[in-house]
């Protein structure tokens, strides 16, 4: 089993030198690993789903996270290759072992018997920094925008995040009140950005994940057991396998065979059985991996279920055969660009530059596969809470920001510009600008209706599926379940409009459950 | 004449890279265009784009190459990119027979969505993995002959065959075009020098040099 011990050191990138100043444990890494390990057991820590206590929070105070943001981490990875020989063996083997050994691993976690050391620098999100100057790379390495903002600005943001963390902890402890009677406060604070220290918790509250787990005790583990013997679609299984080491290959959690990749594999396999019709679609892996950096495995699974099948994100339609959701998003995106940037649209048309050329991966992964993580996580804060509008807002803001340059570029220039766009963006600033972009929900609705009018077959298919979901029933959480907890203010009306009714979560009861009860 | 040297070319050809996911399309592209190989590359989502110019028979040929996501359902989006392509590299992984078996499906996809006269080259990638080879060279070669495809084995990892593959397909396209042009000079229409011959959406015509 491999595990990490992390040491925080500061170094001045300006001078290109490093000095050991501090040797505090890096909170995110340790908190994450220990939580993951606990959860991977037989879900015997029910408290894990509850509100974090003050002491939980102390373990990963925002202050220290912020320290991590302003200083780069020097990570000391310790490979305990002693008697446990599966550190470097192939994926499937270590997968089998890792589940069973998780208890052992917890015990072993304190005995640091170093045999092999590997040093690398990671940013605050766990991505490996390739370039010591801190530039963001599209190769999958560092995902911070360090190079683009001043030291003073970074400090300011860190301080703000600390003070917000305190407010968030208070809000989380009274979540029921806030999510019902003070939705506007929740919405406002989410838009300001959820502090990294509480992000996983907040995403789960907003997505109703704790309730889904409570309503489906042990179900994730049952699907996992099933996945070991039941492979309804070998193609899907192979596609997942090929993507495991191609998902955040420069993130410390996923770079090597081991726990991180095993978790990703299990969650993706589980979802592919949970929803056999979608199975797995490329793009889903990046989102799932992002969730795994913030929450334990079982919660990640249910967060994926929420994100895929819940009415807010409804990502399932993006990944189905024929990709109706992606086609719709590309159409709506194209029309919105035309509405807000008619001259740029003309320029793009002259250059034969179509939205699918640059925005397909933005939509399919909701920015997770290439953009700086302050942008990605900020978008996801809002996407999970409010839905698709933020995605279009971000794209429109990209274009507003880029238009002066894009006008000067021909087709190839435009394509290369978009390719390198992630490196130019200060995610924090961009997301704040995005909220002020004058896009309204009615604009989105208008073009969605138009898309359906032009594509009645897709409309028919999606309607049919919605009917099927409703007939087959949900998780039985009832009122006050998933979507009540969401506390997203404006959600309920929208759900009803979409025919989901009563604000209840309507999710297909998958055929898998029935099959499972036979098999188990 | 263009003032920017990198813009000068005689022909602009649009080529697509297709094949199952994980066969190495993106690394073939990065090896050819930037001489880079990344063991830790990310899955391609949607389409990616790169260009490179080569010399063939005294002409400068610029290739605009579209790299596509390999998973079958992405064809809903990527098939639009076959339109106007004059060449396709259909890639499989020599260590995974399944990726070779799917070549027929990819050919059908091209028949359905690409120009009828598209030049297709079958590319057996990962030739460095000889010890776990799952597709014999002879098998692939006879398949290619049957289907009238060019064929080559490559390794994006150690560079074997990569330049040759692109050079060959681009030269082949150029010859085809020249033949058609010669025919056209005697008859009607045709594509002139410096003119972009790619059709359909997705490409900007090249700078005309004449």
UniProtKB/TrEMBL annotation, chain A:
Which terms are listed as keywords in the entry? Answer: Coiled coil, GTPase activation
Point to the regions of Acidic residues compositional bias.
98-108
Which domain of life does this protein belong to? Eukaryota
Its name, as the record gives it, is: Rab-GAP TBC domain-containing protein
Pfam families assigned: RabGAP-TBC
**Region annotation Disordered: where it falls in the sequence:** 1-60, 80-116, 479-520
Coiled-coil residues are: none
Cite a single GO MF annotation: small GTPase binding
The record places domain Rab-GAP TBC at 193-387
InterPro entries associated with the record? Rab-GAP-TBC_dom (IPR000195), Rab-GAP_TBC_sf (IPR035969), Rab_GAP_TBC_domain (IPR050302)
| Basic and acidic residues composition-biased segments | 15-43, 80-97, 492-520
Polar residues bias spans: 1-14
Automatic annotation (TrEMBL), chain B:
Report keywords, A-Z. Answer: GTP-binding, Lipoprotein, Membrane, Nucleotide-binding, Prenylation
* UniProt subcellular location: Endomembrane system
State a single Gene Ontology molecular function: GTPase activity
Q: How does it sit in the membrane?
A: Lipid-anchor
Q: Which CDD domains match?
A: Rab11_like
Q: Which domain of life is it from?
A: Eukaryota
**Which cellular component terms (GO) are annotated to the entry?**
endomembrane system
Q: Which SMART domains match?
A: RAB, RAN, RAS, RHO
Q: Which family does it belong to?
A: Belongs to the small GTPase superfamily. Rab family.
The molecule here is called Uncharacterized protein
Q: What is the lineage of its organism?
A: Eukaryota, Sar, Stramenopiles, Ochrophyta, Bolidophyceae
């Amino acid at each position: 089993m491999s595990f990490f011990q992390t040491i925080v050191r500061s170094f001045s990138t300006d001078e290109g030198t490093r000095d050991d100043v501090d040797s505090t444990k890096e909170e995110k890494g340790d908190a994450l690993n220990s939580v993951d390990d606990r959860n991977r057991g037989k879900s015997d820590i029910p408290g894990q789903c509850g509100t974090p206590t003050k002491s939980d929070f102390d373990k990963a105070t925002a202050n220290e996270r912020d320290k991590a943001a302003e200083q780069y981490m020097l990570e000391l990875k310790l490979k305990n290759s002693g008697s446990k020989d599966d550190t470097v063996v192939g994926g499937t083997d270590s997968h089998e072992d890792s589940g069973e050994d998780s208890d052992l691993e917890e015990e072993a976690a304190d005995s640091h018997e170093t045999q092999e050391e590997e040093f690398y620098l990671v940013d605050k999100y766990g991505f490996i920094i390739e370039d010591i100057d801190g530039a963001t790379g599209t190769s999958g390495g560092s995902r911070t925008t360090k190079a683009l903002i001043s030291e003073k600005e970074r400090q300011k943001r860190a301080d703000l995040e600390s003070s917000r963390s305190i407010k968030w902890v208070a809000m989380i402890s009274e979540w029921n009140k806030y999510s019902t009677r003070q939705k506007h406060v929740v919405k406002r604070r989410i838009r300001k950005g959820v502090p990294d220290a509480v992000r996983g918790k907040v995403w789960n509250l907003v997505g109703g994940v704790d309730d889904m787990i409570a309503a489906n005790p042990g179900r994730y583990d049952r699907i996992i057991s099933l996945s070991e013997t039941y492979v309804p679609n070998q193609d899907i299984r192979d596609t997942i396998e090929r993507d495991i080491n191609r998902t955040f290959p420069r993130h410390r959690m996923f770079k090597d065979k081991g726990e991180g990749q095993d978790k990703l594999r299990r969650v993706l396999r589980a979802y592919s059985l949970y929803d056999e019709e979608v199975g797995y679609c490329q793009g889903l892996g990046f989102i799932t991996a992002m969730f795994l950096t913030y929450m334990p495995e079982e919660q990640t699974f249910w967060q994926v279920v929420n994100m895929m099948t819940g009415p807010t994100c409804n990502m399932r339609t993006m990944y189905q055969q024929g990709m109706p959701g992606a086609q719709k998003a590309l159409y709506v995106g194209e029309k919105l660009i035309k509405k807000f940037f008619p001259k740029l649209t003309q320029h793009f048309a002259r250059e034969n530059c179509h939205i699918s050329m640059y925005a397909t991966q933005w939509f399919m992964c909701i920015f997770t596969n290439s953009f700086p993580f302050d942008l990605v996580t900020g978008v996801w804060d809002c996407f999970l809470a409010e839905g698709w509008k933020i995605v279009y807002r971000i794209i429109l803001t990209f274009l507003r920001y880029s238009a002066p340059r894009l006008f000067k570029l021909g087709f190839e220039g435009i394509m290369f510009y978009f390719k390198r766009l992630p490196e130019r963006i200060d995610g924090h600033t961009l997301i704040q600008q995005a909220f002020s972009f004058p896009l309204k929900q009615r604009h989105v609705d208008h073009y969605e209706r138009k898309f359906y009018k032009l594509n009645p077959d897709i409309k028919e298919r999606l309607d049919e599926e919605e009917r099927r979901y409703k007939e087959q029933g949900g998780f039985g959480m009832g009122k006050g379940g998933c979507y009540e907890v969401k506390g997203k203010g404006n959600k309920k009306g929208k759900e009803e409009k979409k025919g989901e009714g009563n604000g209840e979560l309507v999710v297909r009861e998958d055929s898998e459950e029935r099959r499972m009860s036979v098999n188990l | 004449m263009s003032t920017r040297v990198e813009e000068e070319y005689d022909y602009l050809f649009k080529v697509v890279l297709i094949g199952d996911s994980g066969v190495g399309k993106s690394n073939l592209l990065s090896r050819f265009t930037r001489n880079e190989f990344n063991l830790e590359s990310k899955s391609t989502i949607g389409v990616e784009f790169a260009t490179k110019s080569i010399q063939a028979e005294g002409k400068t040929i610029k290739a605009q190459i579209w790299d596509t996501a390999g998973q079958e359902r992405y064809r809903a989006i990527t098939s639009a990119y076959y339109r106007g392509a004059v060449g396709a590299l259909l890639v499989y992984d020599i260590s995974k027979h399944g990726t070779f078996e799917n070549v027929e499906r990819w050919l059908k996809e091209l028949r359905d969505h690409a120009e009828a006269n598209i030049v297709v080259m079958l590319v057996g990638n990962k030739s460095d993995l000889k010890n776990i080879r799952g597709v014999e060279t002879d098998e692939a070669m006879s398949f290619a002959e049957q289907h009238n495809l060019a064929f080559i084995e490559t390794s994006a990892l150690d560079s074997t065959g990569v330049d040759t593959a692109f050079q060959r397909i681009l030269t082949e396209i150029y010859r085809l075009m020249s033949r058609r042009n010669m025919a056209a000079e005697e008859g009607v229409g045709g594509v002139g020098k410096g003119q972009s011959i790619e059709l359909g959406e997705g490409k900007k015509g090249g700078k005309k040099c004449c």
